[in-house]
Specification:
Strand content: 15-25%
Shape: elongated
Mean pLDDT: 83
Number of helices: 4
Number of strands: 4
Order of helices and strands: HHEEEEHH
Radius of gyration: 19 Å
Structural class: alpha+beta
Strand order of the largest sheet: 1-2-3-4
Low-confidence stretches: 1-10
Helix content: 25-40%
Number of domains: 1
Length: about 120
């Protein structure tokens, strides 16, 4: 029987620390979405096609396998190292709130500690 991973919520200091450690490019993609650009395309031996797009910001790759008629047969993503937050699956809505807040604070040049101090002072 597998171990259930710990639940990490938006107020979890470990999640906040992990988000704070994300490079700007990774944080931008997690906040705004990827900036996909066509990268490669090729016909495979079984008459299917492989089309790859790459994110200009974080270098993630989306690989699609298409039928001879263009129907999507499969889709998968290849993320750069450190893009995914270890020990976490898909982020919840409140986890994404934490990402958006970190993104805004970085643009403002405010550290999370300064932000907490400002909220307490209000």
């Amino acid at each position: 029987m597998g171990r259930t991973p710990p639940q990490v919520g938006p107020e979890d200091p470990d999640l906040s620390h992990r988000i704070h450690q994300l490079p700007d490019a990774y944080l931008g993609c997690r906040d705004y979405g990827h900036n996909w650009r066509p990268s490669t395309a090729r016909r495979l031996r079984d008459s299917t096609y492989e089309a790859v797009v790459t994110c200009e910001r974080c270098a993630a790759r989306r690989v699609r396998l298409l039928s001879a008629r263009g129907a999507v047969l499969s889709n998968h993503y290849e993320y750069p190292e450190q893009y995914l937050i270890p020990g976490m699956g898909r982020l919840t809505g409140t986890d994404r709130d934490s990402l958006r807040l970190e993104s805004v604070l970085r643009v403002m040049g405010v550290t999370p500690l300064e932000s907490r101090r400002r909220r307490r002072a209000q």
